[in-house]
Structure formats: C-alpha cells, structure tokens
Specification:
Blueprint: E1 17-21, E2 24-26, E3 34-43, E4 45-46, E5 49-50, E6 58-67, E7 70-77, H1 81-89, H2 105-110, E8 125-129, E9 132-136, E10 143-145, E11 152-155, E12 166-167, E13 172-174, E14 179-186, E15 192-199, E16 205-212, E17 228-233, E18 236-237, H3 240-244, E19 258-259, E20 265-271, E21 277-283, E22 287-297, E23 300-308, H4 312-316, H5 319-324, E24 333-340, E25 347-350, E26 357-360, H6 363-366, E27 373-378, E28 388-393, E29 399-402, E30 407-409, E31 413-416, E32 426-434, E33 439-446, E34 451-457, E35 468-472, E36 482-484
Antiparallel strand pairs: 1-7, 2-34, 3-6, 3-35, 4-5, 6-7, 8-9, 9-10, 10-11, 12-14, 13-14, 14-15, 15-16, 17-20, 18-19, 20-21, 22-23, 23-24, 24-25, 26-27, 27-28, 28-29, 30-32, 31-32, 32-33, 33-34, 35-36
C-alpha cells in the first residue's frame, strides 16, 4: 500500500515531555499570556490490535504555555478508563467510534451479559465545567485533568443522574447568561434528544426540554443563536435497538447508522426562554460535523456550517483510507442555511469557494450574533488532508490564506487581543506537520493580515488531532478563567 505524504501524522506517539522550553522564531504579542490546551488521538495500537478509525486513538493532552515571549510545552497521555483498561489487558477493551473490541468466541460467550463501560477516551475536545478542566468525547463521561501538570484526576462527576448515552464534544457557553448549553441523546424504546444547561460554577445539569425521536441522528455539534437552540438532524440515523444489542455483535458504534437522504435534513428550533419547540423545518440532505455560527435575521435564522452532500466523509476517515491518501468523495463546503421560524422549507447557498473544516470564530464576541470572519482548514490538493489555513470574510467572500510546501495545519484557534475593537484583532494558533522535515511546529499568525509572526518547533511529531481551547490566567481559580472558545 502506498502511503500519503502526511501519513506520519497518523502514527502513534509514545513520548511524553514535561515543561520543555521551545525555541521561538519570531516575536509573540506582548499581551499573549495563557495556555493552549489540546487533546487528540495519539495511540493507534494496543498490543497486536489496532484501532480502525482516526476518531478512535487513545487520547493525549498537549499544553502550550505562553508568557513573556516564551512558549513552554508539555504532553501527557490522558489516563482515562479506556486507556487504563487497554494497558491492563494488553488489548482494545472498550468500543470506540469505529472500532469494536476483538474478542475470542469463548470470551464473547463468557462476557455476553456483562455491561462494559462506555468509552471515556476524551480525544475530541477540551473544555471547563465548574472548577475543572476536562477532556471530552461523544459519551457523557468527561475526564478531569490538572491543566498545569496534565495529570489525570479521574472521571468528572455531575451532580445529577440525567440519562443519556451520547452527547456532543462541543457544548456552548453563553457569556451573558453565564451557563453551558448542551444535549444528550437517550436511546431506548422511547428515544429523545435531551437539552440541558449547567449554571457556571456548578455541576448540575438541568433538563431544559426533550424532543422525542424514533431513530436518532448522529450529531457531532449544534448551533445556537441569541434566542434559539437549533438541533440539526442530518439523515444519518440509527435504530436504537441496534445500539441496545451492540455488545452482542462486532459492529462498531458508527457502523450501526444508515444514510437516508429521502428524509432530508431537519432543523428543530427551540426557544431558549421557555423550552418550547418553535418549529421543525426541512432542507435538502447534507451532513455536517461542525456548525460555524447561527443568528437571527429578518424573522428567520441563519445557520452557517461546514457541510457535505452525504456522510461518506466518515468512511474516508478510517485510518487505512487516510494513510493511503485515498481521495475523498467530498470535502467540507462553507454553506449558509436560511431556516424559517414559520414555514417548512430551508434554503441553502454557498458562502465561499474555500473548503473549510474545523471552523473557528471570535466566539465570545460573535457566537449567536451576526459576524464577519471564520477561520478554518482548507484542502487544496486531491488528497484527504488539510494543507492550508484560510480566513473567510462571510460578508464579502474575500479569502486570505497561509500555506507552505509539505505542511499540513490543524484547527486554527483564534485568540482575541485584549480590548480589541475589531472582530479579527488577535492571533491564530495552529499545530502544523511539516511532512518533508518530519516535525511539528506551533504556528502563530496575526489574525487581521493572516501573516506568520512566529513559530516554535515541538520535540516530536504530534499526531493529527481535533480541537483545543485557549485559557487565560490559568493560575487563577477556574471560576475566574477566561476561556476562548
């Protein structure tokens, strides 16, 4: 099998480094003080068994501490239950997104009626709940860790018993209401989407509303506006009975879902004041991992997303396909959806020619509001992987980009300058694999010009990951943290 030039970004990293001072090329803004915390899959084999999907690798945490024009780096495996079980047994023990445990027939029979715990392999995102920083995946079992040492503290314990088996790794934080907004999917004879809130500083999930559903959709994230929560049901759905019996067969979680384009894509609009379902409307079928933003305009909702014509991108992300550089059937298009508060038809239009994934905005200022700039990764070549960072002006369509030969950047994290007057006043932070030099470096762009101002090489290749957050004043109590989302 021929290998893609970026395949080294999909190999296991075993090395852990503590408090390494990185050599800096360029000059950082004097105001850039704080910590970039990221998570991502880093271990793709356990014993003689291998994970099958990019989303499955055991999580590693990464910390970049910025202070006085210096960057200090630490990385450490997340000691989740999934990680510890794998190390103890020498094999893949818990099922992941695209991988089921490989067990002998005898073992299957002996363990048929034993409920194994859900994965807590927090390799998707980092966020803060109450006074703790947590690594999260798409099961409702966050894993808390010390942000200064990256030491795992154990599973985060909510102060409630809200039922659900699947959630999002992209909860929202409303800075005006001072609360987290998220959802869980409850599978069963009567399945439902359960939307909840968490008041800042507490661990109590308060059920906001429930939407019954016969065949729940796979949802990775969701948008909110100032007045509404929007759940977007792409037609990738599952019969709950298949998931109820998942331990009796070898089908991985995501392979139980089926694509039903005839259903279209449904938008459920929930009033944030009273929890009422305001409207359910439908558009042409599409699939999306990430929603850029949503806001109210002229009696309707505007929802921007990085979307695909179908869900085949999930298959493209199996490691065998990624490592071989198999061309994807589709790439993420930046699209705008006009969603009526009354009426049943959703209209869509492209926002840009750029093929944007991992979209980020000035979250604190713009989430749920009209905005101008989105930052993301673009794929210029025929292979699967991002090889360019872009800044898209959604009002004019103008695009600025950063690209370098043989370089593959990750998610661009926007960090706003203090007291910024302009929406795009700040910096962009992105981890970049230089495949030709076999190294990873942290790239710093000036967000307005989108020009490089600094970079710092990391002591090893960091496997391609997903998401991270920038925290200011990490030494202060968590309730005082300013989390850039």
């Amino acid at each position: 099998m021929s290998l893609a030039p970026y395949h080294i970004g999909l190999e296991t990293l075993n090395q852990e480094v503590a408090e390494a001072n990185l050599a800096l090329q360029g000059v950082l803004p004097s105001w850039l003080t704080g910590m970039l915390l990221r998570t991502g899959p880093a271990k793709f084999e356990v014993g003689e068994q291998s994970y099958r999907h990019w989303f499955d690798g055991l999580a590693m945490l990464y910390q970049f501490w910025f202070k006085e024009n210096q960057i200090r780096y630490t990385n450490r495996f997340l000691q989740s239950g999934s990680y510890l079980d794998a190390l103890e047994t020498g094999r893949i023990y818990r099922g992941e997104f695209g991988t089921s445990p490989q067990r002998s027939l005898l073992t299957q029979l002996l363990t048929m009626f034993i409920d194994r715990p859900l994965t807590d392999n927090g390799n998707v995102n980092v966020t803060a709940i109450a006074d703790q920083v947590v690594a999260v995946t798409e099961t409702p079992t966050p894993v808390a860790f010390d942000p200064t040492t990256l030491q795992t503290l154990g599973n985060f314990e909510y102060a409630d018993d809200l039922a659900g088996q699947v959630t999002t790794a992209h909860p929202h934080f409303d800075f005006k209401r001072n609360q987290i907004i998220s959802y869980q999917i409850q599978f069963g004879r009567r399945s439902a989407y359960a939307i909840y809130s968490i008041e800042a500083g507490t661990k109590q999930r308060s059920l906001f509303t429930q939407i019954p559903v016969q065949q729940p959709a796979y949802m990775h994230s969701f948008p909110i506006s100032e007045k509404y929560i929007i759940l977007v049901e792409c037609p990738l759905t599952v019969n709950p009975l298949r998931l109820a019996t998942i331990r009796f067969h070898k089908t991985p979680f995501i392979e139980n879902y089926r694509w039903h384009p005839e259903q279209g894509t449904r938008f459920h609009i929930i009033d944030r004041e009273n929890g009422n379902l305001v409207n359910t409307c439908e558009g042409d079928p599409f699939f999306a991992f990430h929603y850029v933003n949503a806001f109210e305009q002229d009696g309707s909702l505007v929802v921007d997303a990085s979307s695909y014509p179908d869900a085949s991108i999930i298959h493209d992300f199996y490691l065998e396909n990624l490592r071989s550089g198999t061309e994807t059937s589709h790439k993420g298009q930046l699209n705008r959806y006009y969603v009526p508060l009354q009426g049943k038809s959703v209209r869509a239009e492209p926002l840009s020619d750029a093929l944007v994934e991992f979209p980020r905005i000035h979250y604190k200022r713009c989430n749920g509001q009209p905005y101008q700039f989105v930052y993301g990764g673009n794929s210029q070549q025929s292979h699967n992987f991002i090889d360019q960072l872009v800044k898209v002006d959604v009002k004019t369509g103008a695009i600025k980009s950063w690209q370098q030969q043989s370089c593959y950047p990750g998610e661009p994290v926007f960090v706003a300058a203090p007291n910024a007057s302009a929406e795009d006043e700040g910096v962009i932070l992105s981890l970049v694999l230089d495949a030709s030099q076999r190294k990873t470096f942290l790239l710093v762009l000036e967000a307005q010009s989108f020009e490089e101002i600094a970079r710092a090489e990391v002591p090893h290749i960091i496997p391609f990951g997903f998401h991270g957050q920038f925290f200011e004043d990490i030494t202060e109590p968590m309730s005082n943290h300013h989390l850039h989302r």
